[in-house]
Amino acid sequence: MTRTTGILPDGKIAGLFESGALKSARPLDDDQIQPASLDLRLGEKAYRVRASFLPGKGSSVQSKLDRFKLHEFSLAEGAVLETGCVYIVPLLESLDLPKTLAASTNPKSSTGRLDIFTRVITDNCQGFDLVEPGYSGQLYLEISPSTFPVVVRTGSRLSQIRFRQGHALLADDELLALHDAEILVATDMPNIHNGGIGLSVDLTGGPDGLVGYRGKRHTGVVDVDRKAALEIHDYWEPIYDHGDREIVLDPDEFYILVSREAVHVPPLYAAEMVPFDPLVGEFRVHYAGFFDPGFGHDAAGGKGARGVLEVRSHEVPFILEHGQLVGRLVYEHMLERPKALYGQITTSNYQAQGLKLSKHFRAG
Question: If we measure between CA atoms, which residue out of 59, 142, 69 comes closest to residue 105?
């Protein structure tokens, strides 16, 4: 049966370019279309602004930039974005969506693991990372590096966009039935609540007791387009379990941890990490949220793929214990099966992963 609602797969994303619903200032990169999303690329220039903003109804992003920009600079030859600063970059991609299509955006996995805070904004928008049905206009990316200064350039990819037709979210009963059939998370008792499956943190560590990393301050820059170029010890402090299976999250420090459960996204579904519950503690997973069809799927080489968690504590120290719930996965129907699954494409950097830093660091 052909679905009439769901997330658009790779073939239909390519069709949006052919129809003019998606436009770009230059040809697409060969690997830019993912199984259920499109990587967005930085444009020719960036604006350093006084503070983050939303344009609101009746206002364009450019009109706000004219008011709030401190200066603008070219990204053609690359530029350093400093920590604690806010930048707005017009993207190479723009939209002319039909009324039947909406979209949402998220940081790419590598962006989240570098603690680069990114959000897409559009003209007239009143919320970040959401594109209204029928939107026609430019896309802009707000960028604020939080731990490491980064080098970016025209064409760098920090964010991704997912297109949806109608309502596609699975309800609790649908999630339970799908978990029984496909095993979405590797646990006997899935925590299914409010349309999502709970994920907990693993603080047992491997044979060496390594449970995570904490980002160092005052490091060198990270070039977001260079893979395996940096030494882990120059940017990260390892965290080991000493038998108590807990860690204290220091306020405003950045941690890379891993989920206790292995995650599986079947080919006809897409998933997204969202906050579990703001009432469980003063911490937040700084999630790069999209999980493409095929993540953790046996046939795509993903057996045992964990969810990497980017975690911060706010305002007060917080004790995080092994098995504590930290986020939840929501699942959506795909409109149809993608031509290629995650794990079968060249940009599948995190298939079959455990605790893993971003692709920019050399393996230990």
Answer: 142
Claim to verify: residue 159 and residue 178 sit in the same structural domain = no
Sequential DSSP letters for 309-347: EEEEE-SS-EEEETT-EEEEEEEEEBSS--SS-TTSSTT
Domain-located, residue 346: no
Instruction: Tell me whether residue 338 is in a domain.
Output: no
Give SS3 for 229.
Answer: coil
Which residues, including other chains, have CB under 8 Å from residue 56's CB and lie 6 or more apart? 124, 125, 126
Closest CA to 345 of 21, 7, 17, 9: 9
- Measured distance CA(161)–CA(243) in Å, rounded: 41
Joined tokens for residue 155: 């064409």
Cα dist from 308 to 7, 35, 63, 111, 348, whole Å: 23, 20, 38, 12, 14
Structure tokens at 233: 């010890």
Which residue is listed with tokens 């609101």?
A: 56
The domain tally of the chain equals 2
Are 89 and 120 in a shared domain? Answer: yes
Asked if the model's pLDDT at residue 159 lies above 70, the reply is yes
Give the predicted TM-score (pTM) of the model: 0.93
The number of beta carbons lying within 10 Å of the beta carbon of residue 1 is: 3
Tell me whether residue 142 is in a domain.
yes
121: in domain: yes
The span from the CA of 295 to the CA of 312, in Å, is 25
Strand pairing of 101-107 and 79-81?
unpaired
294: which DSSP letter? T
Both 136 and 15 in a single domain?
A: yes
How many C-beta neighbours within 10 Å does residue 213 have? 21
- pLDDT digits 0-9 by tens, 257-272: 999 999 999 999 999 9
How far apart, in Å, do the first and last CA atoms of the chain sit? 48
Q: Kindly state whether residues 194 and 264 are assigned to the same domain.
A: yes
Q: Where are the alpha helices (DSSP H) in the chain?
A: 10-19, 61-68, 109-113, 172-182
